[in-house]
Specification:
Blueprint: E1 6-17, E2 20-32, E3 37-40, H1 48-55, E4 63-68, E5 71-72, H2 78-88, E6 89-92, H3 104-114, H4 119-132, H5 148-160, E7 166-170, H6 178-195, E8 198-202, H7 206-209, E9 214-216, E10 218-219, E11 222-223
Parallel strand pairs: 3-8, 3-9, 6-7, 7-8
Antiparallel strand pairs: 1-2, 1-4, 4-5, 10-11
Helix pairs in contact: 3-4, 3-5, 5-6
The chain binds adenosine-5'-triphosphate and magnesium ion.
The site of magnesium ion has 3 residues, from helix 1.
Length: 224
């Protein structure tokens, strides 16, 4: 029995394209212990986003298995996978993916309400999280009125809203300028370490990767 927070066992993923089958992951293996922060650094097109989507239970692999906290996700129904994802996993995208019609606070409240948290409690937690990312006074702004760095901070707060044990991030500061990227990334790492979360964070930036506990890469569909 593995004590890993995230385990990928012989994970395969193929895409069907006009040119035929494109094997992206061919038996990827990875274990991340509770509290361990791992950087995923690999060239464009090698399958980083694919891997993160599989680990985040947003997609199902064509082969192999994804274990979250020791639980085999492939054996679960869609409903059970959604529940597991909501309770255990936070996901940060490269482009914030915030709901444009909702305020910063509402974007952090919604995932909590979907998990069954009462509105008042969810609002209090959203305010606290946003405050922790320097966004006090901005809670009622819609994403369109926030800077890129602020939008990503809201997206990070949203990912942490349901107190996940695993944080997955796909180039979370990839669309920010160097200075902002560095600041937001530092805040993200501090938040992840402070909460003792396991994390898998894709980045193109070797300096950012060097600040994590371990660096892995993807080559020929395998993790090395
Ligand atoms: N839905 C899809 N249908 C067909 N091919 C896809 C699909 N999604 C991804 N691919 C292909 O799979 C490969 C891996 O894509 P992926 O997005 O995982 O790479 P990546 O490492 O995240 O790249 P980047 O650094 O540019 O974000 C690419 O060749 C891509 O074109
Ligand atoms: Mg990608």
């Amino acid at each position: 029995m593995s004590s890993a927070m995230l385990r990928l066992a012989a994970v395969e993923r193929r895409y069907r394209t006009e040119a035929g089958e494109l094997p992206v992951l061919r038996g990827a293996e990875l274990e991340i212990a509770p509290g361990e922060i791992v950087a995923l650094v690999a060239p464009s097109g090698t399958g980083k986003s694919t891997l993160l989507h599989l680990a985040g239970l947003l997609e199902r692999p064509d082969g192999g298995e994804v274990f979250i906290g020791g639980k085999a996700a492939g054996k679960l129904s869609d409903k059970e996978r959604t529940a597991l994802r909501r309770s255990e996993i936070g996901f940060v995208y490269q482009f914030h993916h915030l709901l444009p019609e909702f305020t910063a606070e509402e974007n952090v409240v919604l995932p909590q309400m979907m998990a069954g948290v009462a509105r008042a409690k969810a609002s209090a937690r959203a305010k606290e999280l946003l405050g922790g990312f320097g966004l006090q006074g901005r809670e009622h702004h819609r994403p369109g009125r926030l800077s890129g760095g602020e939008q990503q901070r809201v997206a990070i707060a949203r990912a942490l809203a349901n107190e996940p044990k695993l944080l997955l991030a796909d180039e979370p500061t990839g669309n920010l300028d160097v200075g902002t990227s560095d600041r937001v990334f530092t805040e993200l790492l501090t938040a992840v370490r402070g909460r003792g979360l396991a994390a898998l964070i894709a980045t193109h930036n070797p300096e950012l990767a060097s600040r994590m506990d371990r660096v892995v890469t993807l080559k020929d569909g395998k993790i090395t």
